[in-house]
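BUG: 3D viewer hangs when loading the predicted structure for this chain

Environment: internal workstation, default settings.
Expected: structure renders.
Actual: progress bar stalls at 90%.

Input used:
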Amino acid sequence: MINPNDPPKAFLLNEILTSSMNAGLQTRNPDYPVYKKGLIDSKSKECMVVEIRKILLSYGESFENIGEKDHIEKIRCMAQHLTKKYGDILHNNTFRIGISQKIINLFLKYLWCLGWIKEPFHCPYDSIIKGKLINGDGPIQLADWTKMNSMDEYGEYVKRAKERAKASGYSIPAWELHVWNNRNSDNSKNSIGKDCQDNHE
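Structure tokens produced before the viewer hung:
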């Protein structure tokens, strides 16, 4: 349960909101930034961030009564609303679906992991999850999450994730959590982990 009047929970909630928004708004794709290049209108950016926080909080509080179709619609509606209201500061005048899903799905993932909400329907789709979804499947195509700008493209991610999760005996959120937690376990090039191990021996 989300209770911003409880100081420890309020602290965690603020950190979750900040982390979720940063993950979506600070993309690493220079060709598909969130904001227009050279933007100096910091006031509009601040207003948009405040609005996203309000949207996330409202959604988190009502999530227990939400179905999967409602969730998909929430992703679309947030992108559409922010595009209409803040398009003049956004790259290509658009708040893309990929950014919307990343922020919303990551926010729900945090809340779920803390036991504050029921299990979400989907997961945050990013380059790591994309790699797992297309691994070994030949010419399967999925849009880069930073470029994704249609619900059809988002639907392809959901479809593939459901297939992967079902084959592994998981729900989508549980499958993604397993993938994320083990993303470096087979990476022999993980120099940080190797250096720590070598120094410990």
